[in-house]
Amino acid sequence: MQATEPLLRKLRLSTPIDADDVRAIERLPITVKDIPAHSIIAREGERPVQCCLLVEGIVCRSKTTDAGKRQILSIHIPGDIPDLQSLQLHVMDHDLTTLSRSTAGFIPHDALHALTRERPLIGEALWRETLIDAAMFREWIVNVGRRSAISRLAHLLAEIGRRMQVMGLAAGDRFELPMTQIDIADALGLTPVHVNRVVQELRRTGLLELHKHVVSLPDLPRLKELGEFDDLYLHQSEIA
Amino acid sequence: MQATEPLLRKLRLSTPIDADDVRAIERLPITVKDIPAHSIIAREGERPVQCCLLVEGIVCRSKTTDAGKRQILSIHIPGDIPDLQSLQLHVMDHDLTTLSRSTAGFIPHDALHALTRERPLIGEALWRETLIDAAMFREWIVNVGRRSAISRLAHLLAEIGRRMQVMGLAAGDRFELPMTQIDIADALGLTPVHVNRVVQELRRTGLLELHKHVVSLPDLPRLKELGEFDDLYLHQSEIA
DNA sequence: CGTCGGGTTGAGGGTGATCAAAGTTTGTGG
DNA sequence: CCACAAACTTTGATCACCCTCAACCCGACG
Predict the structure, then answer these.
(1) What pLDDT is attached to residue B113?
(2) Which of B92, B94, B103, B93 is nearest to B58 (CA)?
(3) pTM of the predicted structure, to 2 decimals
């Protein structure tokens, strides 16, 4: 698979990409690497000189408090460039870590700056991607700030499911989610013990099947309702 | 005061602005308005055709859950353009509301698009501002997700104080913060009752004076420590 | 002078944390 | 392919932080 394929798919959701754009993106000098699970791609305080285009696997952004508690800020799936902000913000203010074994393409900042200069519409498309990131952060704030544990989990699952589906990474109501319950706890601002209890509650009510990191959401409407999930904030149809 | 003055001050923090840039910005067609406290500037679901440059006062972005709970996502001070994302994301995914009587300049999207096209460096500077917004959202997630009530409040006060100071809106350790304890509760994901108790706790320990919406932070080092506040994420010196 | 929004105080309750331990799966090396 | 260790999941008991409900106070403002 071309490393740029998921990216192109994602950009096309929100931007009309023409043949020249595609060529310019495919001409980017990308270094593809396989990365083991639980590896740090970029660390808080670093000054990256490249961006990371996720091609396969799952990565997350996170911060760790002085007390040693981790908070996951976002989950990223293939097609995402989770450190795109480093093009304009020179110091990482959080960590970027793989959750599963992943494949990523690394693109030098130089090349991306040149791309945005030559093809301003791609520049705007990339800007838009970072703005959608910000929109997801906003919803994430609501999730940890104002929802009960069970709603938080329902919302997280609905969001990831929706994003997977749009990227063609879900088969029906089923997708792979290589996160441990510890990871989920860090995403939701809960403890792993309580996540476990909530997972069981969702299972018991027939809203979730979860086995060996494969998720299936048999009753999506009820799950979305429980998680108050409305995909408006994902801005998946920004054209026009 | 020129409506663009706080904006220019803010942009200069992160971008070298030349005389032509200043002229281009000052030539923007801006409609200045006074807005009463607790008025909605833009509502979730709307499709704005202009951006709001805050000149005086305090506004916030917020979402309201199905259960009617409000979560404040960010606090904005003069110089901010809190709906700058609407340039690229056409539908508002949250509300924008004044917390105090405010003065704002409204700038048509057309004019801003033209500006970013003619002066790409300003375009990048605006992109950068939205990325700093995103960085603040990330820290906000950590605040509501992983910190105790008292740390959350300490962090919020330290953040706003720092931003006020940089914009020349603080006199020493003192600044105006026209938020009720209800607003603060909605920012921190707490109830007003509990915010009140935590405010008193901060007062008792000599970390906070708060009277008639004037805040003073007599022991900033201890406050920052309590709130785990490190201003890295504000990216206030992005030059080079 | 009365009303209203906001601040303060108190009592009781519940969601989710903490602590601890047992069970299960995963991964690794022999 | 098995043995073992490590990581993760599950369960139970107890605890605490923060919520809920309710009442009262206070100052601003009509």
Answers:
(1) 96
(2) B103
(3) 0.96
